[in-house]
Write a structure and sequence with these properties.
heterodimer; A: 354 residues; mainly alpha; ABC transporter involved in vitamin B12 uptake, BtuC; 2 domains; 15 helices; globular; B: 299 residues; two-stranded antiparallel ribbon; ABC transporter permease (chain A); ABC_transp_permease (chain A); membrane (chain A)
Chain lengths: 354, 299
């Protein structure tokens, strides 16, 4: 759309257009949040300023923000990689949870003597299992046209059920209460970057994933073809791109990345798997991908933004007794308005009239 | 005795899923996959508890819950039909948004995190005369009957007629199944879809009211426990047919009611809980495989 509009326009206008497009859902969300805050008699500007300070104010708060953003880097890319090919994969959440469990499993069952090799083993196993997990709906879609939205949504609940059973049964830690596996060996824990903050090397892996995604999407034939499938299926198959192969490719890649994300969260953040492993990282990742318009830089910024909201939300609740749920209100609004075409359509019409 | 209890519990646990599924299937026949049934159930349950406590009347509470659900549904529909939002993402977003709003109000107005316990909440009345409990096997289930369960099952058996023989029923089906025909007939697809989404919200709201007012009389953030998605699974498995869907709901209700008993038999409840979702996956696979074969046979 931006391409079509840019013919005969100044590049400045085009950038302005893009910027508004990217910021639109977030602006709406801030307005909604501001109305809610006004309704309870708080000054929204004060609250936003406090939230900003709590997420970027000091080195420690920045570390907390980036730490909260880490899983979102993975889930954002895992979602975007499918969305840009027109595959509506909503199963990143389930794949992340499965990956987390697999990584933790490797981390506490294999002998500690393996030392640092535990980490690649755990990441590899998590990526493998999560890839197979999403290969199933990918195959069903590619071969039998089984609606991927419903199949991946259902698989999420299956993932919660299986992992919930395992951490309460066969994999339950003997020493620490309910719903958790044993801790992984110390050698399998990802090093912390800025102690005492929980920011860990998983963040760097996440950034690497985002960069690799950006290179793949913009600079490789395979990434280009995948985007083409998303834009026009008939054209793509006419020029010889295999649609089923593309669907399977993006679903497997999405699974691999979700698995890496789960492994990073298990080995870096929790050092184990626990019931309620993910407070909806997969769904927030969807908001991140939509806000970032499937673009690598956009995804990075989106992940940091939602990480900031999450880390600021907790402390804002502590200091100003504004409920943490304001974060959910913002997230939900962003998701809804990221897919609304109201603004862009009217802009297009306005252009057409001139 | 155990049989009596299982039947009664299954019937009670079926009702909320059944109500939401009836709404959802009409919505899907109208061409909208409503992934936000859970949000509307949650909103319905929340409103039901508050209104029931304020007015002390179950009927007003149930009606307000339904209207609240319908209102959320209508607004949701506008986002889809007028602003061309993707219904899946918008639906998932609405689930997050509604949960956020409710949590916010809960925290701010009632100063509680998670659970809302209010005085004088009136529960749904059990209206059957006392002697029915003496009937063997189904006696307990009959004596536990309340208006919403009865209403849900009346809906199951009238909905096929309404969809097949009334003007609005035909409009809904035409909009979902043959949009071109609907347009050619001069039906406003958007308005019909808005109606069907509001309808789904209305019924999900009723389902939420049942969850809150059938026996516990309080609201909790985790009250729906994904039942909106179970309802989605039910009408997907029941292929949008009211009676088939109702039977599937009954099966899910039965699974829900027997989970705890099966645990003592060595079957973990968490795994039993995945059965509805696995059933949908299997149903999707079979349907996809059939279509595939049909296409392969056709020239």
């Amino acid at each position: 759309m931006a391409e079509a509009a840019s013919i005969g326009r100044s590049p400045l206008m085009d950038w302005f257009d893009k910027g508004i497009g990217l910021a639109f859902p977030f602006i709406v969300a801030l307005v909604v949040a501001a109305v809610v805050l006004l309704a309870i008699g708080e000054n929204p500007l004060d609250v936003f300023a406090l939230m900003f300070a709590e997420s970027f104010g000091t080195q420690r708060r920045i570390a907390a923000t980036l730490s909260a953003a880490t899983p979102l880097l993975f889930t954002g890319v895992a979602t975007a990689i499918c969305f840009r090919s027109g595959v509506f994969n909503v199963g990143v959440e389930g794949a992340l949870v499965i990956g987390g469990l697999c990584a933790a499993f490797i981390g506490f069952t294999l002998p500690a003597a393996l030392g640092l090799t535990l980490i690649p083993l755990a990441f590899g196993f998590a990526a493998l299992v999560s890839a197979i997990w999403l290969l199933v709906p990918g195959f069903l879609l590619a071969r039998y046209e089984v609606d991927e939205v419903v199949s991946t949504l259902m698989l999420n609940f299956v993932a919660f059920g299986i992992t919930g059973y395992l951490v309460n049964g066969p994999l339950l830690s003997e020493i620490s209460g309910n719903n958790v596996t044993p801790l992984v060996h110390e050698a399998a824990q990802l090093p912390r970057l800025m102690p005492p903050s929980t920011l860990h090397t998983g963040f760097l892996i996440g950034v690497l994933v985002v960069i690799l995604y950006g290179v793949w999407a913009r600079r490789t034939p395979s990434g280009f073809e995948a985007a083409l499938v998303g834009q026009n299926k008939r054209f793509s198959s006419a020029v010889g791109i295999s649609i089923p192969a593309t669907i399977i490719l993006v679903m497997v890649l999405s699974g691999v990345i979700s698995g890496l994300g789960g492994a990073s969260h298990a080995l870096g953040q929790l050092h184990r798997f626990a019931d309620g492993f993910s407070p909806g990282y997969g769904f927030t990742g969807m908001a991140v991908a939509l806000l970032g318009r499937n673009n690598a830089i956009g995804i990075f910024l989106g992940a940091v933004l939602f990480g900031a909201l999450a880390s600021a939300g907790t402390t804002v609740q502590l200091f100003s007794d504004i409920p943490l749920d304001i974060v959910n209100i913002i997230e939900g609004t962003v998701m809804i308005f990221a897919v609304v075409e109201l603004g862009r359509i009217s802009l297009k019409r306005w252009r057409a009239r001139r | 005795m155990i049989v009596d209890q299982v039947i009664a519990a299954s019937l009670t646990l079926t009702t909320p899923i059944l109500l939401a599924a009836m709404g959802g299937l009409v919505n899907r026949q109208g061409g909208i996959v409503n992934i936000a049934l859970d949000a509307k159930m949650l909103a319905g349950a929340f409103v039901a508890v508050i209104v029931s406590s304020m007015t002390g009347g179950w009927f007003v509470a149930v009606l307000s819950a339904a209207v609240a659900g319908a209102l959320v549904g209508y607004l949701f529909s506008l986002v889809i039909t007028r602003a061309n939002a993707n219904m899946i993402v918008a639906g998932l977003g609405l689930n997050v948004l509604v949960a956020g709003f409710i949590g916010f109000i809960l925290n701010w107005v009632y100063d509680s995190s998670g659970t809302l316990r209010l005085p004088d909440v009136q529960l749904l009345p059990k209206f059957m005369p006392d002697f029915v409990s003496g009937i063997p096997v189904v006696g307990l289930a009959l004596s536990e009957l309340e208006p919403l369960t009865v209403f849900a099952w009346i809906t199951v058996f009238t909905l096929p007629f309404l969809l097949a023989n009334t003007r609005i029923g035909l409009w809904v089906r035409a909009t979902g199944n043959a949009p071109q025909v609907a347009r050619a007939m001069g039906i406003s697809g958007r308005n019909v879809q808005d109606f069907s989404t509001a309808f789904a919200g209305f019924f999900s709201g009723l389902g939420g009211a049942h969850l809150a007012l059938a026996s516990i009389g309080l609201f909790n953030e985790g009250l729906t426990a994904g039942r909106g998605f179970i309802a989605l699974a039910a009408f997907y498995f029941g292929r949008d047919r009211p009676v088939t869907t109702a039977l599937v709901c009954l099966l899910f209700g039965f699974l829900d009611a027997t989970q705890i008993r099966m645990q003592t038999a060595g079957l973990p409840p968490k795994l039993i809980g995945t059965i509805p979702y696995l059933m949908v996956l299997v149903a999707l696979c079979i349907a996809g495989w059939r279509n595939h074969r049909r296409k392969a046979v056709a020239p």
